[in-house]
Write a structure and sequence with these properties.
The chain is built from six helices and twelve strands. It is of the alpha+beta class. The chain has two domains: about 160 residues, CofE-like (60s Ribosomal Protein L30, Chain: A, 2-Layer Sandwich), CATH 3.30.1330.100; about 80 residues, CofE-like fold. The strands form four sheets. The chain has a five-stranded mixed beta sheet with strand order 1-12-2-8-9. A three-stranded antiparallel beta sheet has the order 4-5-6. A hairpin with a 4-residue loop joins strand 4 and strand 5. The two termini are about 35 Å apart.
Length: about 260
């Protein structure tokens, strides 16, 4: 049985405004001013996407017929509809209230993760896409932090998502390296009355992302990364399978 733990989350101050080509790991290593084995660095998706040059001007997008049809039914610009289609494996629901898409990485969320908040030029039609491969981005940042600090850390790239049947968004892991994504306790632990757990699988990476995003903020706080301590027993030597390991297989999708 795992002993009860104590966690701390520290939002990192002093990070720059990120732009294409900047080194996320290098900037975080400086801002953190010391990382230790077992720390988990949680990073807002936006700064990773910016560093990877994932900004798009809607004026440069050429919408097709399907995009124009979606735009007419959802009150969105045709160019935005085209980007959603380009970034999606499937459109699950398209209404004026929300376009729910299965991103090509497998994550399900509104607008395929495309957003204009905290993006320079957002008012003029500049938007930001997710990293091409968030798990690969997390692995690269982890390697960069290890090279600069010597510390064996976990890395989570987080974005805020809505949830079925609930109001509001919660920080979720879209990319992960060096962290146990799920802890399967089925058949391995007991409750207070000695009954063996039958259904408990803990979403470790999502839980870490959620508490870090609360500390980082989602508006003008200017703290797009945080260090989580006290979760070192979930940090691994190898990179692990990534956040994609936490996605429910399509065959088990109860909402389709």
């Amino acid at each position: 049985m795992k002993e009860p733990g104590q966690f701390s989350v520290t939002a990192l101050r002093g990070l720059p405004m990120f732009a294409a080509g900047m080194d996320v790991a290098a900037e975080i290593a400086v801002a953190a001013d010391g990382l230790a084995d077992g720390d988990i660095v949680v990073i807002a998706q936006k700064i990773v996407s910016k560093a990877e040059g994932r900004t798009v001007a809607l004026a440069e997008v050429q919408p097709g017929k399907e995009a124009r049809t979606m735009a007419a039914g959802t009150a969105r610009p045709p160019e935005m509809a085209q980007l959603i289609l380009d970034e999606s494996a499937a459109i699950l629901r398209a209404t004026p209230a929300a376009v729910i898409a299965r991103h090509r990485t497998g994550h399900v969320l509104a607008n395929a993760g495309i957003d204009a908040s905290n993006v320079a030029g957002g008012d003029a039609g500049t938007v930001l896409l997710w990293p091409v491969d968030p798990d690969a981005s997390a692995r690269a940042i982890r390697a960069g932090l290890r090279a600069r600090t010597g510390a064996r850390v976990g890395v989570v790239i987080a974005d805020s998502m809505g949830r079925a049947w609930r109001i509001g968004t919660v920080g979720s892991a879209i990319g992960c390296a060096g962290l146990q994504v799920l802890e399967d306790r089925r058949g391995k632990a007991q409750d207070l009355f000695g009954r063996t757990l039958q259904a408990t699988v803990i979403a470790v990476a999502d839980a870490v992302a959620a508490m870090a995003v609360l500390a980082m903020g989602e508006g003008a706080e200017g703290t797009p990364a945080a260090v989580v301590r006290g979760c070192g027993h979930w940090v691994s030597e190898d990179d692990g399978p990534g956040a994609a390991a936490g996605l429910r297989p399509l065959a088990e999708d109860m909402f389709r």
